[in-house]
Structure formats: structure tokens, C-alpha cells
């Protein structure tokens, strides 16, 4: 019964939060409207989204977020220095294959997004059977080090959050 | 006074990073390396400006403004998707299998895969709880 | 001090937008143009936010939000069109 009216409880909570942020003020009227929207939108879009992303470990998710923010700031500075001061001929782009241990689509999407958001690495593609990611590095020589770094720093943590 | 210094510093940092990001767009040699520049502009650049705006609203206008968080979150969610699509367009346009490292699995990279079999969505192992089929 | 920082940020983002415009016009390939347009959208969002700070109002956030959304959709649509020659499959 609850399942029928609230196919995605997490999405509903997120919608309420987003609506209140958009209104930018707390009023009971907007909370009621947000509640109506948070029931209607998941019901209307449920056919397109049968699966449900499951965050098993919220503490690990918070830790992951902090680590990603720290990495974004740190690697932003590194990449800015490369762009500003390294001559064009000395920049060595590199393709890296990252084999995946993650299997759920949501976890792989988060991993790919994280790799892209930390400057210096961009996720370009996934293998057709979904078992490896193609990552492009701005300036690197050691493919193995980057692969191990991604796997140990992000993937094991995502493993703990989603699986 | 402290808030003033903080807001000014955030604005200067965001401006510098955005400028470096745009400069990277003309300096770097090819499209794949150029793709790295805008991620900088959209993370520290816009992020810094938005946090400065939040602080400014709290200290000078005495109102708490949460809009900025929404824009930051939206940019953080969408920037990787755009970058991925541009990379895929570039791969389909210019690159062949030989230019890329091997996948290490049976199939080629999804954009270049010419076999008749559909590109596999990553399947959930059957029988896992909480996932209706 | 904030006024000076605002002027500096305006100048940085303005130059950034001009560089992107240059890239859009003289681009070596079409995906390059999409990338430059996307960067331009990001710079414009920050420009709108900074303008909001400088005249001391929160009115411009809807504009920045809409800019972010339409910018994202149009970049993805362009890239998809280059990739497949079609947007909605």
C-alpha cells in the first residue's frame, strides 16, 4: 500500500527539500504544496525508473562527500598550475582503463561523475558490457598509479555505500 | 570586517579560477585535454561566487538565502554529464579503437562498439532485495 | 574592499566569456564549439550571481537557475545531435 503511493521515498524527501529551497523561505503553505508534488511526481515518473538507488551507509556517504570536496579543491590548484605554467609541448595526456568492481548502475554513475568533477581526469566512456571505464588524464605518465588511486580512493568507498 | 575579507577573497579566487578555465580552452592542444578546463570553472569558479553570495546575503541583507546551494548542486550534477556527452561526440567523430587502450573485457568501448548486440546496461544480480524487476 | 573584488571578478568572468566566444567562432571541430558554449553558460551564471551581489538583491537567482537548466539541456542536445544525428530516439 505504502509502496504503491510512495514508489521512491528518497526522491519524495528530496523533492520536498528542493521545493522549500526554491521558495527560499519556510511557510506551511509551501510545505503542503511540496508534499503534494512529492507524491505526484514519483507516481508519474515511476514507469521510467523501476529501480531504486539504495544508500546503505549514510555515514560513509557523508565521508565520501567531504573527501570529494577536498580532492576537488586540491586538484583544481594542480590543474590551474599546469594550465598556466606548463608549456604546451610538455603536457602529456594519457588514457587509462579502470576495470570496475561496482555493478549497480547508480554506483557507477556516481563514480564516473566523481572522476569527471575532480579536475585532471575525465570519464570518457564505458565498455559495452559495463565492466570498465575509460578515463582521460590531463597530464600523467603512470597509468597504473592513477587506476589504483581511483579504485582505492573512490571505488572501495562507493562499494561500502551502495553494495 | 572578517566577513568582508572572506567575501572579497572568495570572489577573487572564483574569478581567477574561471579565467584560468577559459584560458585553458584556448591554450590546451586538443579537445580531450580542453575538456578538463571547464570542470575547473564550474567547480571552484562558480562555487566560490555562490558561497560569496550566500555570505553576502547573510551578513549585509540579514536574510538566509538557500538558492545558491541549489544552483551549486545542479551544476555539480550536470557538469559531468555534459562533459561525458562531448567526449563521446569527439570519440565517435575522431577516434578509432586503435587510439584507445584495450577495455580488458570482451567488448569494445560503448561508443565504438559496432557489434549487433545491444550495449549492456549493467544488470543487477537477480534476487537482490528492494529491487522489483 | 568588496567593491574592488567585485570589479576584479567582473573583469575575470567578462574576459572568460570573450575567450569562449572566440572559441565558438574559431573552433577546430564541432564538439569544440559545444564545449565552448557550455563553458560560456557556466561563466554567465557566475556573472549573473556576481551582479546580484553588486546591486544587493536576491532577485537574479531565478535567472541564474534558469540559465543553468537551459544551458545543460542545450549542451546535451547539441552533443547528442552530433553523436547520433538525432536528439530524441
From TrEMBL, chain A:
Cited Pfam families: MNHE (PF01899)
TM stretches of this protein: 58-85
UniProt GO cellular component terms: plasma membrane
Main localization category: membrane
UniProt keyword annotations, A-Z: Cell membrane, Membrane, Transmembrane, Transmembrane helix
Domain of life: Bacteria
Topology of this chain in the membrane: Multi-pass membrane protein
Subcellular location: Cell membrane
Classification via InterPro entries: Cation_antiport_E
Molecular function in Gene Ontology: monoatomic cation transmembrane transporter activity
Membership in a protein family: Belongs to the CPA3 antiporters (TC 2.A.63) subunit E family.
Name used for this protein in its record: Na+/H+ antiporter subunit E
From TrEMBL, chain B:
Entry superkingdom: Bacteria
InterPro entries recorded: PhaG_MnhG_YufB
PANTHER family, sorted: ANTIPORTER SUBUNIT MNHG2-RELATED (PTHR34703)
Organism: Gemmobacter lutimaris
Signal peptide bounds: none
Transmembrane regions: 6-26, 38-60, 66-87
Pfam families according to UniProt: PhaG_MnhG_YufB
Keywords linked to the UniProt accession: Membrane, Transmembrane, Transmembrane helix
Region (Disordered): 95-133
GO molecular function per UniProt: sodium:proton antiporter activity
Descriptive protein name: Na+/H+ antiporter subunit G
Annotated Pro residues bias: 123-133
UniProtKB/TrEMBL annotation, chain C:
GO CC term (a single one): plasma membrane
InterPro entries reported in the protein's UniProt record: MrpF/PhaF-like
Stretches that traverse the bilayer: 6-27, 34-53, 59-83
Keyword match Cell membrane: yes
GO molecular function: sodium:proton antiporter activity
Localisation: Cell membrane
Keywords, in A-Z order: Antiport, Cell membrane, Ion transport, Membrane, Transmembrane, Transmembrane helix, Transport
Protein origin, superkingdom: Bacteria
Topology term for the membrane: Multi-pass membrane protein
Coiled coil segments of this chain: none
Family label: Belongs to the CPA3 antiporters (TC 2.A.63) subunit F family.
Stated name of the protein: K+/H+ antiporter subunit F
Species of origin: Gemmobacter lutimaris
Organismal lineage: Bacteria, Pseudomonadati, Pseudomonadota, Alphaproteobacteria, Rhodobacterales
Amino acid at each position: 500500500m505504502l509502496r504503491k503511493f510512495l514508489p521512491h521515498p528518497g526522491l519524495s524527501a528530496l523533492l520536498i527539500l528542493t521545493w522549500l529551497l526554491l521558495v527560499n523561505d519556510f511557510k506551511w503553505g509551501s510545505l503542503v504544496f511540496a508534499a503534494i508534488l512529492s507524491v505526484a511526481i514519483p507516481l508519474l515518473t515511476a514507469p521510467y525508473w523501476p529501480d531504486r538507488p539504495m544508500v546503505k551507509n549514510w555515514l560513509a556517504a557523508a565521508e565520501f562527500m567531504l573527501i570529494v570536496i577536498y580532492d576537488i579543491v586540491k586538484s583544481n590548484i594542480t590543474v590551474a598550475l599546469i594550465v598556466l605554467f606548463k608549456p604546451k609541448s610538455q603536457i602529456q595526456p594519457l588514457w587509462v582503463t579502470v576495470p570496475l568492481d561496482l555493478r549497480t548502475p547508480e554506483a557507477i554513475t556516481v563514480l564516473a561523475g566523481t572522476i569527471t568533477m575532480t579536475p585532471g581526469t575525465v570519464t570518457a566512456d564505458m565498455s559495452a558490457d559495463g565492466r570498465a571505464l575509460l578515463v582521460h588524464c590531463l597530464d600523467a605518465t603512470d597509468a597504473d598509479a592513477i587506476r589504483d588511486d581511483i579504485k582505492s580512493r573512490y571505488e572501495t568507498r562507493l562499494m561500502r555505500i551502495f553494495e | 570586517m572578517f566577513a568582508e575579507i572572506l567575501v572579497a577573497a572568495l570572489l577573487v579566487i572564483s574569478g581567477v579560477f574561471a579565467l584560468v578555465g577559459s584560458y585553458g580552452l584556448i591554450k590546451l592542444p586538443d579537445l580531450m585535454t580542453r575538456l578538463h578546463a571547464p570542470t575547473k570553472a564550474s567547480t571552484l569558479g562558480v562555487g566560490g561566487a555562490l558561497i560569496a553570495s550566500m555570505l553576502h546575503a547573510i551578513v549585509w541583507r540579514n536574510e538566509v538565502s538557500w538558492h545558491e546551494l541549489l544552483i551549486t548542486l545542479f551544476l555539480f550534477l550536470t557538469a559531468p554529464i555534459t562533459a561525458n556527452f562531448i567526449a563521446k561526440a569527439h570519440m565517435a567523430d575522431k577516434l578509432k579503437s586503435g587510439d584507445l587502450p584495450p577495455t580488458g573485457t570482451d567488448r569494445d568501448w560503448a561508443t565504438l562498439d559496432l557489434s549487433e548486440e545491444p550495449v549492456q546496461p549493467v544488470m543487477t544480480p537477480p534476487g537482490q532485495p528492494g529491487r522489483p524487476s | 574592499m568588496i567593491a574592488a573584488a567585485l570589479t576584479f571578478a567582473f573583469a575575470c568572468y567578462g574576459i572568460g566569456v570573450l575567450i569562449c566566444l572566440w572559441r565558438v567562432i574559431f573552433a577546430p571541430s564541432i564538439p569544440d564549439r559545444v564545449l565552448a558554449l557550455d563553458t560560456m553558460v557556466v561563466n554567465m551564471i557566475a556573472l549573473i550571481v556576481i551582479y546580484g551581489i553588486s546591486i544587493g538583491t536576491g532577485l537574479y537567482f531565478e535567472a541564474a537557475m534558469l540559465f543553468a537548466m537551459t544551458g545543460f539541456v542545450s549542451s546535451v542536445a547539441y552533443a547528442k545531435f552530433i553523436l547520433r544525428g538525432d536528439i530524441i530516439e
